[in-house]
Structure prediction request, 677 residues.
Amino acid sequence: MSENISLPLVRVEDLSVYFPVRGGVPFARKKQVKAVNHVSLCVPKGETFGLVGESGCGKSTLANAILGMVKPTGGKIYFKDQELTALPPKALRQARRDMQMIFQDPFSSLNPRFDVYRLISEPMLIRGGYTKAEMEARVVELLGLVGLSADDLHRYPSDFSGGQRQRIGIARAISLNPEFLVCDEPVSALDVSVHAQILNLLMDLQKRLGMTYLFISHNLAVVKDICPSVAVMYLGSVMETGVTKTIFRNPLHPYTQSLLSAVLDVDVDSRKQRIILKGEIPSPIDVPAGCPFCTRCPKATDRCRSEQPKPVLAEPGHFVCCHYPGPIEAE
Amino acid sequence: MTDKTMLKVENLKVIFPNAAGVVRAVEGVDLTVREGECVAIVGESGSGKSVTSLAVMKLLNSPPAVTRVDTLEFDGRDLRQATEKEMLDIRGKEMAMIFQDALTALNPVMTIGHQLDEVFIRHQHMKKKEAKQASILALRLVGVPSPERRYSDFPHELSGGMRQRVLIAMAFACNPKLIIADEPTTALDVTIQAQVLDVLKNMQREHSTSLILITHDLSVVAHMADTVYVMYCGRIVEKAPLKELFHRPLHPYTEGLLAAVPRLSEENHQFIQIPDAVPNPMHKPAGCTFHPRCRYCTQQCRDKMPPLQDMGDGRQVRCWHPLGGPNLTEDALQDGSVGKEAGRYE
Prediction:
């Protein structure tokens, strides 16, 4: 919350992740996929930080970089004031114990040949230092926390529905009491009527265990409800970031505006004016010079095409990366 | 939209027998689609919505599927009697399908132009050159930029939204009377979803095609449909015109689904949830299939499956205690769980 300024748990400074493109013309300059391009953000402790954007905008790569699963090309990541990017591998592994991840698809993230006990106890087994009895007690406790029962201990993932599988995934993620949890689209693979159950569970666990979430989603209505602060990404860059309420009430970047207006509402009476973006997201191999959004922006000028905008503080708790922030007319 | 009936299905049943038992995927579905109407079938995974659409097109492989239907009339023809050879002429020409995942629906080793040409050559007996012209025109109509160049692209060279447009172009190629779109935008991003739905809506209006839209996303339904069927566990639980359904749902499942959609325009800090999950189709609960998850459930619901009853204004509901409805039973009124606030879930 903005009232009590909390300390950042995770801080990302000028982070870039580039992947080399294989093949191409011999001796020509190697191309790169610029998945994350000079991103800076701050995840306050005990809060849920939302990361929104379309597929291919680099949200998952950013999360993977924070968790140490991909090596950043440049920039710094701080976790609890420790610079992760400068740590030797052994110390990094130590630091990563306090960060865990919930995956999108509970059908592929659980080994079908492991029973629930083995799935949830595996992190403890890897860390070591637990007796068998301790592990079993902990697994039963975790099952209770996520709304499953001890009877499920020796059942296999195939016996469970999608929502229950995601609960197992959550139990596994919190088994080592992490401080920081990355939720990568935790509900988008589930049935609509189960979404609310899993989201409520995540919020409840956060309250009880005091975890910090990085919540990746493309569902803006969900992000609005559970994330006090948010960053909108496009083509590897953050377009707009700050307090969610402020941004959703007064989006200043043309991309945020069109993203918000593209969300279909269940309201059948109001036919709201929508900004329909022309064209598609450019390939991250050839990111446009200047503003990444300039190829689809209705307001783009020559300045946008040549000069990359710097983040500007538009109002308290609201940064925007645009030369001409402000509303655009819906067509 | 006219009053002419384009598709009429009565008492459709599809079962899949297997070694462990019988999966009753669709249990007695009635469906009517008028000319130029957009009918949405809403339901979660396993509710039988896709099987219904495949059965209408006679695309279900038998075995394993066993299909029974009392009436299957398309544009005045009885499709039950149609042979596979006749169906081959009907599919693609008079009724067409748009699948969810365009990457698997398109052949990866053929250019999209070649695949579009096939439709024209097969159904309109065009020459190769004419077909190419027709394909390029079809691509232009759905808003594919520089269609002459795209014509010789392979599916993997196009983005998700473009591939979906190609599928739409293919479905509308022969100006069919009925199109079935199975989750046409689920695999797409929000901004692209808005584009593709607009294309689909415009094409449907211009050609006054009947459209069956299969989806789990109520916001897509709100944007597209004229009439909505809500399916749960292989049965239709509610049928209503769009606005009536969204303003005043009669079935507790519809009410729950509507309440569970997070809205951009409202503030809420707790998500409204429907308890439990969709039951296993092999072991459906006795009585009303929704009763274990229903907060208005009574003994009557546990014992007996309610019939699909007419509620006037083109509405039908399968519930013993429709929300705010007239036929509340004594015991439901006594425990005060019914009819208090019909519009809101919690």
Remarks:
- Residues 142 and 199 of chain B are 6 Å apart (CA to CA).
